[in-house]
Amino acid sequence: MAEIHKEVGRMSGKDLLEQISSLIDGKLLASKDDIESIKTELFEIKKENLSLKGEVESLREEIKKRDIKLEALENFTRRNNLLFKGVKGDRGAEKETIIKFCREVLGTEVSDSVQEAYRVETSFPMIKVVCAGQKQVLDILRNSKRLKGTGFFIDRDYCWETRVKRGKLFRCRREFLQKNPGLKIRIVADTLIMEGRRFKWDEKEGLKGASEEDQEWMEKLSAEK
Q1: What is the DSSP track for 122-164?
Q2: Same domain for 141 and 92?
Q3: How many domains is the chain partitioned into structurally?
Q4: Which terminus of the chain is less hemmed in, N or C, by CB atoms within 10 Å?
Q5: Domain check: are 84 and 153 in the same one?
Q6: Which residues span the domain enclosing 67?
Q7: At what angle are helices 212-223 and 160-179 packed, to 10 degrees?
Q8: Which domain of life is it from (predicted)?
């Protein structure tokens, strides 16, 4: 320790150390212990952030599952509804218009099947029909194949979220058929069925297969010229 008392210029080593210590305290400079403490705090903050990110991701998944259930529930409440697109009729006489349309165009009698019918205000003529049950809905949809090329369409009354997904699926369907005209592909509710494989639309990931095998098959098909 004798070395510390050697003079440095006109100041001893001990005085120099005291002066440096005073400067550190006076200028609020961090000591080695302070730096280690800060590092520890930063590590804990990063650790906490990772934990929070995990919780946020978990919440997103829960919200996604909840939204899927709500969408399915809303579609279930609409299961007996049909939309007749392109069909015009006098206001207040929509029910009679639909009964006549089904009889003359579809060749089916729905007098006892239609509970309600009213016009939907859109740029395209549309009448919303509430049927007595699923049997009546399926009978009408089965006969709707007669409408091909007529400019009339009959569709289920899906909720907005499902309609958006179906719009994306129909676009995908067109793109696949342009490359592969012989492809067996159809859309049922919010699912695209292609060669027996099922795909759904995900806002984050796009068209997504029901399994990894289906996803790989679709990606390979998409890559073909």
Answers
A1: SSS-EEEEEESSHHHHHHHHHHGGGGTTTT-EEEE---HHHHH
A2: yes
A3: 3
A4: C
A5: yes
A6: 34-77
A7: 50
A8: Eukaryota
